[in-house]
Amino acid sequence: MAKYSPENGLRAGYIVDDGMEQMKLDPRLPLLQEADLKDKVVLLRVDHNVVKKGKVLDQYRIDVTLPTMYNIVERGGRLIIMSHIGRPYDKKTKTISIREDDSVDAVVAYLQRKLRIKFAVPRLSTTEKNGILDIDTSINWLIHDLKIRKIGGIYLPNTRWFAGEENKGEKLERFVIQLSALADVYVNDAFGSWQPHGSTYHIAKCLPSYAGLCMQESDIKLAKELVEQDKTHKKIVEMQVLVESDTLDGRFEGRFRTINIKDFAPGQTYKYVVDVDPTSFEKDEVEQAVNSAKTIFVNAVMGLMPHFWHGTSKMDDVIDKNRSAQKFFGGGDTLQTFKSLHPVLYQAALDNIKYYLFTGGGTVLKVIEEGDPMGLETVKALIDNKANYFKSIQMN
Questions:
Q1: Which among 13, 66, 164, 198 is most buried, taking Cβ atoms within 10 Å?
Q2: 266 preceded by cis ω (within 30°)?
Q3: CA-CA distance, 159 to 82, in Å (whole number)?
Q4: Can you tell me the distance from the alpha carbon of 88 to that of 100, in angstroms, rounded to the nearest whole number?
């Protein structure tokens, strides 16, 4: 506990030591703490992709962005939030489907219950095949209400409903120009959204841009650690016993069976391999590998969910028994499955220093592949923005 002293500048009271280590980040990365936010409209990109069939399945990915939201508002900023939900763009037909199941409404409802403030979602014109073509000027009424604090924030529709989000031509350019006209500052707190889309990459070329707290304090540091672990402690073990099913429609008695990879032979055919049998984790090589591991990174489920969950459940149990290892669970499906199979363990993991639950599972795999989180296009866009900003100041 850091008690009062003349050095901390407090006339009464003291600052409490929260036990968090001060992390050293690449000085090229522009941080939210460096931004001037007073009376500024802040466009905040988050990864709230936790909605399925119109319901929030796991609040964790929303909750980890609350510190960034609070920081912005506490320092005088007014929030416009945006996130993608699902995959409404069909690559084959090149069309965007706007469905209620992919709307941000469930996330907004959760935030309103959690924070006890009201968010407004703009009503924008949609097309049958191209989603939302434009952010029309009617949104200015909401921005006016935001500035006078009539509403607590604005939450834009699903970014993937916009024709320009995943586009590479004129639609992208128009979307980014219209986005940038809404705000004074851009903050990216969506480390899990590594694809260089309009709302994650191109927008950083148009506004003063910064990394949010979730991105800078957790995911980038974690990615660096896992890159180093991957370089020095790779371990591959074989799951010997698998589950074969005659159908993908469910787990039906008499229509699934265990198979052993030792019995595989040229010319043999199988139906659908849908899971790892729990007994695979009892094999000496697997058990020894998990029990002796110092770092365990989980970024997948073992079986075809929701019917074939038994291998994943056994994996989680075996990993938890290694009490000394640092355990990382990442990715939306991974966390949702972990929570549904082991709700008590999931809650305990949230406050256990040996567990770290993070949002960007696919992103961390991308970072491990490339070897440096600063090499991601979305992160480089922030770095370039800072470099160009200082260059413009020097020229003036």
A1: 164
A2: no
A3: 7
A4: 11
Q: Does residue 130 sit in helix, strand or coil?
A: strand
CA distance linking residue 193 with residue 255, whole number of Å = 39
Distance in angstroms (rounded) separating the CA atoms of residues 292 and 307: 31
Q: Pairing between strand 241-245 and 89-90? A: unpaired
CA distance 372 to 364: 10
Q: Hey, how many other C-beta atoms are within 10 angstroms of the C-beta on 124? A: 17
For residues 272 and 307, the answer to whether their CB atoms sit within 8 Å is no
CA dihedral 17, 19, 20, 24 (to 10 degrees): 90
What distance in Å separates the CA atoms of residue 274 and residue 305, rounded to the nearest whole number?
9
What are the tokens at 300? 């997948």
Angle formed by the axes of helices 284-292 and 310-321, nearest 10°: 50
Interatomic CA distance for residues 256 and 275, integer angstroms: 10
For 202-229, write each residue's pLDDT tens digit: 999 999 999 999 888 655 666 666 666 6
CB atoms within 10 A of CB 274: 20
Amino acid letter at 35? A
In whole angstroms, give the CA distance from residue 103 to residue 132. 13
Evaluate whether 70 touches 152 at the Cβ level (below 8 Å). no
Backbone angles phi, psi at 228, to 5 degrees: -65, -40
Nearest Cα to 339, choosing from 365, 305, 295? 305
Q: What six digits make up the tokens of 367?
A: 């970072």
CA 132 to chain centre: 24
Global pTM value: 0.81
